[in-house]
Amino acid sequence: MFSKLSVVVAAVLITLAAAMPNGTPPPPVTPPTSNQCCASVVPASDKSASLVAAVLGLDLSGILVDVGLSCSPITVIGNNCGGTTVTCDAPEKEWGGLIAINCIPITL
């Protein structure tokens, strides 16, 4: 049973890789407008950023900005950020808070 499942999963991944030979184009880098609380902020070239981007089907090659990982929006109600407070490009909803592009630390 397990071997059949692994064959099916491998076939699906190969099909997806063939359908997107170069991944999706990199997301556009726009001026940061969204305050976020991120677990970490790393360069787009960092291995952890590349892994998260790959899961989402994003290609970060050629992007020379910092990205936030595991981010959530900061609301007016309160800032209980236990991570790094940054302002980033507004993340796409389909990214599910896993990554935000062009993050700049907020210093108070």
UniProtKB/TrEMBL annotation:
It is found in: Secreted, Cell wall. InterPro entries: Class_I_Hydrophobin. The keyword Kinase does not apply. The keyword Phosphoprotein does not apply. SMART domains: HYDRO (SM00075). Its main location: secreted. Keywords: Cell wall, Disulfide bond, Secreted, Signal. It comes from the Eukaryota. CDD domains: hydrophobin_I. It holds the Pfam family Hydrophobin. GO terms for molecular function: structural constituent of cell wall. Self-assembles to form functional amyloid fibrils called rodlets. Self-assembly into fibrillar rodlets occurs spontaneously at hydrophobic:hydrophilic interfaces and the rodlets further associate laterally to form amphipathic monolayers. Belongs to the fungal hydrophobin family. This is Hydrophobin. It comes from Favolaschia claudopus. The lineage of its organism: Eukaryota, Fungi, Dikarya, Basidiomycota, Agaricomycotina.
